[in-house]
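protein under study:
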Amino acid sequence: MKKNIWHETVKKNFNNASANYLSYSNIQKHFAEKIVSFVKGLNIQKGEWIDLGSGTGLLADEIEKIFSKENITRIDFSKKMLLQNKDSSKKILWDLNNGLPPSISKCSLITSNFCIHWLDDPEKIIRGWFSKLRSGGYLIISYPTINSFPEWKQTCKETNIEYSGLTFPVSRDIIQSFNSDEIFFSNKYLYVENFPNVYKLFRSIVNVGAQSSKCERKKVHELKEIQKYWPKKATNSVNLTWEINIQILKKS
């Protein structure tokens, strides 16, 4: 799939999911809360606070609940997602594949929750975000790693059906160009979702607009095979396991 077509497909899916996103974004909420807990423990200097790939404002809202004096700038490429944000919030419609808007500089805090795996060159882009920090500023990112979805990958291997999920980033690659004194924190967390069946599992991905794939859409008989061979719990339900990395970078 050509790059521009892929970008438009991703944008369309997130636009379509915007109205109901908050009702289904359980894992995003969980890690937004974790990010907030880290922000509370940091000594953040005066300066602009930015949330990248902000979507409906889930993370930005959680931060502003604790830091009521901050008005976080929300940046996203989905107009419909941004329209779900509070009217009083600062919003910028922007494709993060193009770096950051020229007006952004000297930030004291940049956050991004479940965004970088949708970008073309996350390692390069993270360097660009880091460059927009002021001295002493923090960049906090969370994202699924390449070790996510082991049940899905194993099922595809057993059934000889192409895995159609995203290829997530390798954690060490994201921060390999940073000096050790710039890496303030890095840790992986497992998060397990449970569904009555595979069909509900895939529907949950569609509900948040994350179904974009560079593979062909699965045929009915392939979905039936995946349902048949996916590892089952005692209740006959199925799990989907995520490995999420939270990394905090600090500019000296």
Observations:
- Residues 3-17 form the longest helix (15 residues).
- The domain at 3-146+167-191+243-250 is CATH 3.40.50.150 (Rossmann fold).
- DSSP finds ten helices and seven strands in the chain.
- The mean pLDDT is 96.
